[in-house]
Amino acid sequence: MAWEVSQYVHLNPVRIRKLGLDKLSQEHSRHGSGSGPSREQVQRRVERLRGYRWSSYRAYTGLVRVPEWLTTRQVLRLGGGRSWEERCRKYRQQTEQWIREGMSISPWERLQEQALLGSAEFVTRMKEQLSGDEREQPRLRRLRGGPGWEAVVAAVEAEKGERWEEFRDRYGDWGRDLALYVARRKCGMRLGELAERAGGIDYGSVAVAISRFGKRLEKDQQLSKRTERVEGTLYK
Fold it and tell me: What is the per-residue pLDDT across 185-204, written as a single tens digit (0 to 9) for each?
């Protein structure tokens, strides 16, 4: 938890509108209604993050010497790595991956669906005591364990009547885009992970596909019904 909180704090300098990382932009991105960041925009984010003089980020990532008053080793150990240099590199890579995907959101939002915050043992204990109607309480449903990528693909295959391998690489195929849209919207999967699952395409292309599909839903009633059936299958 300290690892993610530390990264979240260090990302504050880039969480601004002109870099596409303000709250509204992030909300659009999480719901698939925004496009992925451009290469130029990512470069500006990285430059600001690494160059922000009032942050300890540069010390945590090995870009400058750690001042005597700052302790970084305890947090960096949480990310793994044998040497201090490797730990710094891992910290930098993960932190900057978030801004490359435009997903630098609060740990409190991402970890437990804004419902539970605490150790793994505490969360497990609370899950065992959960009660209520999952249809009426989406967060409760997600805390109990949501569907994974495989379940999404299976639901889309059933709706489409084709195997994933048959339509995965078709540009603009509604089945492929539907899987990406639902996995992002219902499972909260990251763009990079979706890009890998979809055959190793660029994560920017995934963002565009999701955004395009969301716009199609507004006009295509039949496609909207298909999406509802797929989502209904995942949460019977």
Answer: 877 777 778 888 888 777 67
Q: 60: which residues sit within 8 A by CB, 6+ positions away?
A: 6, 10, 72, 75, 76, 88, 91, 92
Beta carbons within 8 Å of 63's beta carbon, 6+ residues apart: 50, 57
Distance between CA atoms of 36 and 29, rounded to whole angstroms?
Answer: 8
The whole-angstrom separation of Cα 177 and Cα 107 is 28
Q: Which residues contact 133 (CB under 8 A, 6 or more apart)?
A: 140
Q: Can you read off the two tokens belonging to residue 138?
A: 């989406």
Do 142 and 186 meet the contact criterion of CB atoms below 8 Å apart? no
pLDDT at 210: 87
CB distance 195 to 100 below 8 Å = no
Kind and range of the H or E element at 28? helix 23-30
pTM (2 d.p.): 0.48
